[in-house]
Amino acid sequence: MKLLITLVKRELQEYKVGLIYAPFIVAFILSLVIVLVYFGVTDIKTNEFNFSTSVYENGEAVEWMRAATVDQKVAVIRSGLVVLGFPIAFVMIFAVLSYSLGTFFEERKDKSIIFWRSLPISDLKTVLSKVFVVVFVAPLIILPALIFLHMVALLSASIYFAVADIVPFTWIWNAYSIVDWFRIIFSLWMQLLWSLPILAWLMLAGAYSRKPIVAAILPLVGLIALERVVFGSALFLATVIERIQPWSLMSSFPKQYKELRVVEIADIPLLLATQEFWYGILISLLLIGAIVYIRSRSEYSSVE
Questions:
Q1: What is the pLDDT of residues 99-126, one digit of tens each?
Q2: Residues 217, 100, 14, 301: is their CA dihedral positive or negative?
Q3: Is 286 inside any structural domain?
Q4: Is the distance from CB of 227 to CB of 235 less than 8 angstroms?
Q5: What is the residue range of 113's domain?
């Protein structure tokens, strides 16, 4: 356990800008915008999205809020917080993709692999520590940023509602549950496990190629084109796309969700019961094994 903690700290130290700082920067910017909107300094209006206090000038909207049940409030609050938290989750996903593609490439590029392989740490443990960071640590890192953003949004809205005499200050807090934080973290863990074949493939490209982006994309494009020419189908492309999308939207998932949402914890066993999930885990293990093998070969210790 101590070794794992040490290896994780090493990864976070080397990639702290993308994995640690970026989510908090985005959360701070979004929090500032939220405060400015609720205090009437600015508003955000587009064809698809409207975030403005002018919404509450509508008498019907105010009456709906005052008559809303707990379940209705929970649904609205959850939807709003998902929309607010999506930019942070997007930053995390981008950071995870960048980390997966670059972590093994960078250690070959700067020759640090020579130092790390001189330590009494096996290649298997090193590779697994990086996978652990991608799947389990990265979502935990953004959780404080999400909580901070949620608290600012809920507190700003509560103050505005109370001052404007729309609903009491406690209107939101009666329907907000900290269980949602666990729903978010478990949902993200499952998402990264679901997408692990993609992440492991990116790691493999960085482990052996001088041009990881080309090595990651070109074989996939070749397989997609080959399947199209030989079989006239696009099953492989559909599989890749499905692995990138939220796991709750996969075609064989027992529940059919059409909107982007944080799923219920009770949905996780449904995911674990699907064959597609375990096929992905098996493919990921094979790719991880290939990464360990490649990293253990001394002739791949640099990109030169």
A1: 999 999 988 888 888 777 777 888 899 9
A2: negative
A3: yes
A4: yes
A5: 8-43+54-300
